[in-house]
Amino acid sequence: MFVVTTVTYPTEKGVQVAKAFVKATEKPLPPFIKRLHVLAAPGGQLGMKVLGIYEVEDAKLKEGLMEISKYFVNFYDVEGFRYDIEPMLTAAEALPLLGI
Fold first, then answer.
1. Is the distance from CB of 64 to CB of 5 less than 8 angstroms?
2. Over the stretch 5-41, which tens digit does the pLDDT of each residue have?
3. Which of 4, 14, 64, 92 is most buried, with most CB under 10 Å away?
4. Residues spanned by the domain of 82
5. 4 with 53: CB under 8 angstroms?
6. How confident is the model at residue 46, as a pLDDT?
């Protein structure tokens, strides 16, 4: 299962976010979670936008969502920091939902 996180924060908070990132990455994610990509771009009125793509073992999805959420606790002091977390299927995994 894939988990996609979407983070936004004000551009002027970049240094504070970078410091929180260094602190957050001091503790590695559990081995059942693989961080595949972290992508960043200007987010217009949102400031900065960062997408994180994680692969989580299917049997550990609940624990994976909890661990990724705990990771973001490190950023709670950053005013304007927001994140969403979504479990997502590949296109092939989603086809049966369409009856295919």
1. no
2. 999 999 999 999 999 999 999 999 999 999 999 999 9
3. 64
4. 2-89
5. yes
6. 82
Q: Could you give the number of structural domains in the chain?
A: 1
Does the residue 39 lie in any domain? Answer: yes
Please report, for the domain that includes residue 54, its CATH number: 3.30.70.1150
Residue 55 CB neighbours (<10 A): 13
Residues 6 or more apart whose Cβ sits within 8 Å of residue 7: 48, 49, 50, 51, 52, 72, 75, 81, 82, 83
Segment (H or E) for 56: strand 48-56
CB atoms within 10 A of CB 22: 10
Does any domain span residue 100? no
Which residue intervals of the chain are DSSP H helices?
A: 14-24, 61-72, 91-94
Range of lowest pLDDT (2-6, 31-35, 48-52, 89-93): 89-93
Mean pLDDT (whole number) for 71-83: 96
Whether 96 is covered by a domain: the verdict is no
